[in-house]
């Protein structure tokens, strides 16, 4: 479970880094370019046409909440959906206008998904088995405990020649 804590801290660090760094370039090249920081996009990104990409933010918040409440499978699905929503940015904008903040944001969605996946796998591996097959084999079959006794052996006819009248 230590790896999931590291990944959750990575998620938080990546998301904070995405908010603190330029995520998009809006017009111009070089010195005349206008850079938009991640925190600005977080506050204003819900406006059309960026709403589909922005929806990854509340989804990541919901995924983080599901993770904290130990609903790891739910967090994994929400994280994956958030990752896909964040990918819609490639459809909305030219790749040349994307900066480090965007890539940190996308990586934070991937980190949330990976963290929830590892946590779900860890829970699955540590849960006890629900059925003990060895105990089933030791159950008595009937009044006699020997399953090979003649009174409990079943024979089946395999054809017309096997039947004796």
Automatic annotation (TrEMBL):
The chain crosses the membrane at residues 36-56, 77-93, 99-120. Residues 142-165 are annotated as: Disordered. The keyword Membrane applies. Residues 1-20 form the signal peptide. Keywords: Membrane, Signal, Transmembrane, Transmembrane helix. This is Uncharacterized protein. It comes from Paludisphaera mucosa.
């Amino acid at each position: 479970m230590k790896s999931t804590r590291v990944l959750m801290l990575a998620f938080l660090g990546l998301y904070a880094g995405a908010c603190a760094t330029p995520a998009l370039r809006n017009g111009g090249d070089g010195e005349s370019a206008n850079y938009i920081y991640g925190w600005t996009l977080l506050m204003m990104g819900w406006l059309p046409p960026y709403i589909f990409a922005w929806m990854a933010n509340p989804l990541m918040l919901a995924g983080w909440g599901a993770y904290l409440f130990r609903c790891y499978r739910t967090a994994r699905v929400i994280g994956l959906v958030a990752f896909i929503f964040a990918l819609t940015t490639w459809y909305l904008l030219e790749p040349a206008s994307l900066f480090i903040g965007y890539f940190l944001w996308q990586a934070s969605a991937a980190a949330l998904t990976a963290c929830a996946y590892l946590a779900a796998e860890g829970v699955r591996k540590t849960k006890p088995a629900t059925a003990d097959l060895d105990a089933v084999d030791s159950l008595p079959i009937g009044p006699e405990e020997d399953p090979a006794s003649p009174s409990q052996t079943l024979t089946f006819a395999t054809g017309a020649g096997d039947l004796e009248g």
